[in-house]
Design a protein that fits this description.
This protein has no helices and 10 strands. The chain is mainly β. It has one domain: Sandwich (Jelly Rolls). It has a 5-stranded antiparallel beta sheet with strand order 1-2-9-4-7, with no helix packed on it. The chain has a 3-stranded antiparallel beta sheet with strand order 6-5-8, with no helix packed on it. A two-stranded antiparallel ribbon has the order 3-10. Strand 1 and strand 2 form a beta hairpin. It is globular and about 35 Å long.
Length: 111
């Protein structure tokens, strides 16, 4: 059994970005906070499936050059090879949960 509290973890970018809550041995998962105007960064995964769940705010998912509006309660699942990015084009924070499976930390390819 493993227990963590989000308050004890830090965002990769200081006040925003990716925050891993648990890494491995079978999945990665955590939260992402994008402030207005920020993007996640375009990338894809060779073997990893990635799912996002929007907790609060609005934004745009860009998947294989198609744009999809996102709002609270929406979930998006990316297959391996799906090129994806997330843009907060609103005036409020955008917060999401992400889950990646299987645990392959070197699988990401930045675009």
């Amino acid at each position: 059994m493993e227990r963590v509290n989000e308050r004890d973890k830090e965002y990769r970018g200081g006040d925003s970005g990716v925050k891993y809550l648990m890494r491995g041995p079978k999945i990665d998962w955590g939260v992402i906070l994008l402030l207005p105007g920020q993007t996640l960064g375009a990338h894809y995964h060779r073997e990893v499936e990635e799912t996002f769940f929007v907790l609060q705010g609005k934004g745009t998912f860009i998947v294989n050059d198609q744009e999809y509006p996102a709002t609270e309660g929406d979930a998006f699942r990316m297959e391996p090879g799906d090129r994806h990015d997330i843009r907060n084009d609103s005036d409020a924070p955008l917060k999401m949960v992400f889950i990646k499976c299987p645990y392959l930390p070197e699988d990401k390819v930045s675009l």
